[in-house]
Amino acid sequence: MRFNTNNIIATGLVGLTLMATSLYAEDKVVVATVNGTEITQETLNNVMGMVGGMPGAQVDKKSVLDDLIITELARQEANKAGLTERQEIKDKIKDATDRLVLNTWTQEKAAAFKPTDEELKKAYEERTSGEKVEYKARHILMKTKAEAEGIIKELDNKVDFADLAKKSSDGPSAGQGGDLGWFKPSTMVKPFAEAVAKMEAGTYTKEPVQTEFGFHVIKLEERRDVKPPEMETLKPQLEREYQQKKMLAYMDELKTKADIKVTLPAEAAKPAAEAAPAAAAPAPAAVPAPAATEEKK
């Protein structure tokens, strides 16, 4: 559908474009005048670009120019009505101007912070220096070591691991045959992760692995290398993070040098009885954390 006048006036896009281009256009090519006010080719091109990016919009140069003319007429009538003299309008104009100036300054200042190749390389290495291996495993969780040893004997007798897990495991993954899916070692409790790292794919532990959750019998199904993204893929994100970090440091520096006086009244001190719980109150009992080995299904 054509982007019509009502849509243009409602969004205010053209009004903003008219103001911006009239301020900064140098070599103006005038495509229309409305009661002496010029509409330039640059303004027309800018609006056509905005309209063309909207879903379902069909860009027609003459139609867009007609819309610009109608919008300019509406702007002139609004000015005749004295709206620009209203205080609430002045306040909104000031707020909009402040936001535009602030956003422009922030973007330009941040863009001025350019990381060196060495800084980018260091950031990339830090980002990709994590774990480079993932594992896919199943496990059977038992309450006692003797029970886990019994499970291992059954596995030695060629009993299917998944069937045993469904029948015997105390872990939440029992219903899935003990399947933990793919996981990185850091997502598991340390004894479990260390045991998996020593295993060959297709084997199961010959001794129970003890953790705070019980005794595990683990079957490692697969392992795979985790390939980090290429430097060029991460480069835009690394540059943005660098700029954000530098901007925060720059603003902290400005703050330390500025003459700032905080006049906000301090909150009234709370009564001692409210400031801290009674010493005699017993601390709540610690609640065991859920098994890290069960988070991946």
Task: Describe this structure as you would to a colleague.
It is an enzyme of class 5 (isomerase). With 297 residues, the chain is α+β, with helices and mostly antiparallel strands. It has three domains: 5-85, no CATH class; 90-128 and 227-256; 133-225, Chitinase A, domain 3. The protein has helices spanning 5-11, 13-24, 41-52, 61-80, 87-112, 117-127, 145-156, 161-168, 190-197, 231-257, 272-275, and strands at 30-34, 37-40, 133-142, 179-183, 209-211, 214-225. It has a four-stranded antiparallel sheet, with helices on both faces. Strands 1-2 form a two-stranded antiparallel sheet. Strand 5 (209-211) and strand 6 (214-225) form a beta hairpin. It is elongated, with a radius of gyration of 34 Å. Residues 1-6, 8-25 and 272-297 have low confidence and may be disordered.
Q: In terms of structural class, how would the helical and strand content be classed? A: alpha+beta
So what's the overall shape?
Answer: elongated
Strand order of the largest sheet: 4-3-6-5
Query: Which residues sit in consecutive blocks of at least 5 with pLDDT less than 50?
Result: 1-6, 8-25, 272-297
Proper CATH architecture of the largest domain: Roll
Q: CATH fold name of the largest domain, please?
A: Chitinase A, domain 3
Query: What's the helix count?
Result: 11
Order of helices and strands: HHEEHHHHEHHEHEEHH
Q: Assign the CATH class of the largest domain.
A: Alpha Beta
**CA-to-CA gap between the ends?**
48 Å
How would a textbook summarize the main sheet? 4 strands, antiparallel
Task: Supply the number of structural domains.
Answer: 3
Keywords: Isomerase, Plasmid, Rotamase, Signal
GO molecular function: peptidyl-prolyl cis-trans isomerase activity
Protein name: peptidylprolyl isomerase
Enzyme class: isomerase
